[in-house]
TrEMBL record:
Keyword vocabulary terms for this entry: Acyltransferase, Transferase
Residues in Thiolase N-terminal domain copies: 5-248
Domain Thiolase C-terminal per the UniProt entry, residue ranges: 258-378
Protein name: Thiolase family protein
Pfam families xref list: Thiolase_C, Thiolase_N
InterPro entries assigned: Thiolase, Thiolase-like, Thiolase_C, Thiolase_CS, Thiolase_N
Entries under PANTHER family matching the protein: ACETYL-COA C-ACYLTRANSFERASE, BLR7806 PROTEIN
Similarity comment: family membership: Belongs to the thiolase-like superfamily. Thiolase family.
């Protein structure tokens, strides 16, 4: 079986809801990262076998196979195909897994994987406003539960005995780490600047440098009157795009571009769709067993901060070292543009691995409906 490597990884900065990127059409925003990849690596776009993009709310501006139109918006040759995938919040991580699978199986030699979500233009939950997505059999199986992720996050906090103060302290730390990363220039080599509203946009917009546990304590619960989950310990609604280039080591050498990481393994699993957000725990175990590694072998982790209880339950169950988790902050501070988040996390992780000489990185995402992806990559020395 062939080996798959990630040659480069890029992302836009994440814009806040109704912020700097609100005027961008998602097709055009996706085209920005496609062309950035081509420019940075020197590839001929006409030699790309496929473009696989994640997008969650495939409605309105994000409908009609967005990936295909992103290829055309980028000015790439018409013969380059594109396909849009949806595995909820893990959509672009799934796109990466499928790109690697295509390369490893020999079905493709060079694939772009990524994602985009413009939540300012296509609001969260917009697709649910037409019809009932679950159907009577599913609702009957789970006693009419409406699969509300906020309620699931509350259930996780209660099951693992997490106080609101612990959740808020984790959230404050996410902002602090993100601010420190921005100040240190940790993101500079991965960001694609875009012209938005007449100005250059190249810094994540949602980081709150002055937040505190005391400030978060004043926020009202979002899902239960006596709950622990609120806007400050939940991921931010955001706009953004990201993409990675996957190919073979041989093709990377021919391009003259040293790979960042090799794709070591991927795993996907389902879990309780009511508790919903705990599947990353089992996906991580499945992935480590497949790779023959232990949790202590991994140098850096990205666990998406959909809600603060998600990475904290993951830490409590797996015993990973907290200082290796989300070292530059997560979605609580940096935002969660749903379809783009998988390869945005991967972009942050692989550039950090390269900068610090770290061998193994593991990424996992909770996903609506109770599934999770986990992906393991290894630094190419």
């Amino acid at each position: 079986m062939a080996e798959a490597v990630v040659v480069d990884a890029v992302r836009t900065a994440h814009g806040k809801r109704d912020g700097a990127l609100a005027s961008f059409h998602p097709v055009d925003l996706a085209a920005e990262v496609l062309n950035a990849l081509a420019g940075r690596t020197g590839i001929d776009p006409g030699e790309v076998d496929d473009v696989i993009l994640g997008c969650v709310t495939q409605l309105g501006d994000q409908s009609s196979n967005l990936a295909r139109f992103a290829v055309l918006a980028a000015g790439w040759p018409e013969h380059v195909p594109g396909v849009t995938v949806n595995r909820a919040c893990g959509s672009s991580q799934q796109a990466l897994d499928q790109a690697a699978q295509a390369v490893m199986s020999g079905q493709a030699e060079m694939v772009v994987a990524g994602g985009v979500e413009c939540m300012s233009r296509v609001p969260l939950g917009a697709a649910r406003q037409v019809g009932q997505p679950y159907g009577p059999a599913v609702l009957g199986r789970y006693d009419g539960f409406d699969f509300n992720q906020g309620i699931s996050a509350e259930m996780i906090a209660e099951k693992w005995g997490m106080s609101r103060r612990r959740l808020d302290a984790f959230s404050v730390e996410s902002h602090a780490k993100a601010a420190a990363a921005i100040d240190a220039g940790a993101f500079d080599g991965q960001l694609v600047p875009v012209l938005a509203g007449g100005r250059r946009f190249a810094e994540d917009e949602g980081v709150r440098r002055t937040t505190s546990v005391e400030a978060l304590a004043r926020l009202r619960p979002s899902f239960k009157s006596d709950g622990r989950i609120h806007a400050g310990n939940s991921s931010q609604i955001s706009d953004g795009a990201s993409a990675v280039l996957v190919t073979t080591p041989e093709r990377a050498r021919a391009l003259g571009v040293p790979p960042l990481v090799r794709y070591r393994a991927g795993a996907v699993c389902g879990g309780d769709p009511v508790l919903m957000l705990t599947a990353p725990i089992e996906a991580t175990r499945k992935l480590l067993a497949r790779a023959g590694l232990g949790i202590g072998d991994i140098d850096v982790f990205e666990v998406n901060e959909a809600f603060a209880p998600v990475p904290l339950a993951w830490l409590d169950e797996l015993g990973a070292r907290p200082e290796r988790l989300n070292v530059h902050g997560g979605a609580i501070a940096l935002g969660h543009p749903l379809g783009a988040s998988g390869t945005s996390l991967m972009t942050r992780m692989v550039h950090h691995m390269r900068d610090k000489g770290l061998r193994y990185g593991l990424q996992t995402m909770c996903e609506g409906g109770g599934t999770a992806n986990a992906t393991l990559v290894e630094l190419v020395a």
